[in-house]
Amino acid sequence: MADSVYKVIEIVGSSEKSWDDAARVAVERAGQTLDDLRVAEVTAQDLKIENGKVVAYRTKLTISFKYRGE
């Protein structure tokens, strides 16, 4: 097995539906510009509140992808 290096970044997804949907949105969007995504870990969840009502779910994730360097 060849040695590998992975880069880890932090991303935040938002959804009007749920925290799960916010995580899915974040991973799918990251996958449009990053190659070879490997692992995502939920690190925080919060809510956006307006006028006493929940208007959005936000999920913060760390996500890793294979590092190719320059």
Order of helices and strands: EHEE
Note the beta-strand portion: over 45%
Kindly state the number of beta strands: 3
Mean pLDDT: 93
CATH topology: Dodecin subunit-like
Task: Tell me what you see in this structure.
This protein has 70 residues and is of the alpha+beta class. The chain has one domain: Dodecin subunit-like, CATH 3.30.1660.10. The protein is 21% helix and 54% strand. The protein is built from one helix and three strands. The chain has one helix at residues 19-33; strands at residues 6-15, 37-50, 53-66. Strands 1-3-2 form a three-stranded antiparallel beta sheet. Strand 2 (37-50) and strand 3 (53-66) form a beta hairpin. The protein is elongated and about 55 Å long. It starts with 5 loop residues before the first strand and ends with a strand. The relative contact order is 0.35.
Q: What are the SSEs and their pairings?
A:
Layout: E1 6-15, H1 19-33, E2 37-50, E3 53-66
Antiparallel strand pairs: 1-3, 2-3
